[in-house]
Amino acid sequence: MAVDPTEFARRTRLHYRDSFERHGPTPQGVDWNGEASQRRQFDELMRILPAAGPFSVNDFGCGYGALADVLLARGPGITYSGVDLNEEMIAAARARFASNPAVTFEVADRPLTEADFGVASGTFTLRLGRSDEQCLASMTEALDAIDRTSRAGFAFNCLTSYSDAPKMRDYLYYPDPCVVFDLCKRRWSRHVALLHDYGLYAFTMLVRKAEPVS
Q: For labelling alongside 187, which of 76, 118, 126, 154 has CA 20 to 30 A away?
């Protein structure tokens, strides 16, 4: 039976609300198993970005704003906007960055403004009763929105179908990275990189609107 998108959004909010209530604004509060794996995922995503500002970033599924900490450490000239369905996480993120005018957070299911780059970390991991086809269709719809609001390119990560079978969980989505690579090449850009060599059961896609300057 198909899972209605509204019902899936409700289940997603409840899932992350429960994690956040148990663990607070920590990697575990957004379903990472620790700071090291969260940071490694961020490092792979940030390969889409210039080494220094100025540039702007939309963070789709931002949680409590952990990526903003890492981005702002790169130096001045970086503008960050995060969106998430979870009101509790957005409230915590706003409190953490209340004094920084370069950082904004909104409760939303899509980026609300254009930015130079878009990122989505851990956003496409939950299955919650959906089929692979439903998960891929939902992810494609979200990435269409990220593409429309990203001037220079975007990056996202997924769990991988190459995960060890005993460690896979039925409530999580493990797409085939080759299928996702083909989707990105055919739908959004010729300039796509697949990163699948960083020691986690995940992969990262970098989708650039133009060929990188060497």
A: 126
- b/e 169-205 (16+ beta carbons within 10 angstroms → b): eeebbbbebeebbebbeeebbeebeebeeeebebbbb
Q: Counting beta carbons within 10 angstroms of the beta carbon of residue 28, is it exposed (0 to 12), middle (13 to 18) or buried (19 or more)?
A: middle
Question: Are 24 and 17 within 8 A, CB to CB?
Answer: no
Check pLDDT > 70 for residue 1: no
List the domains of the chain with CATH numbers: 5-22+34-42+53-208 (3.40.50.150)
- Asked if pLDDT for residue 21 goes beyond 80, the answer is no
Q: How far apart are CA 194 and CA 163, in angstroms?
A: 16
Q: Tell me how many degrees the CA angle 54-55-58 measures, rounded to the nearest 5.
A: 150
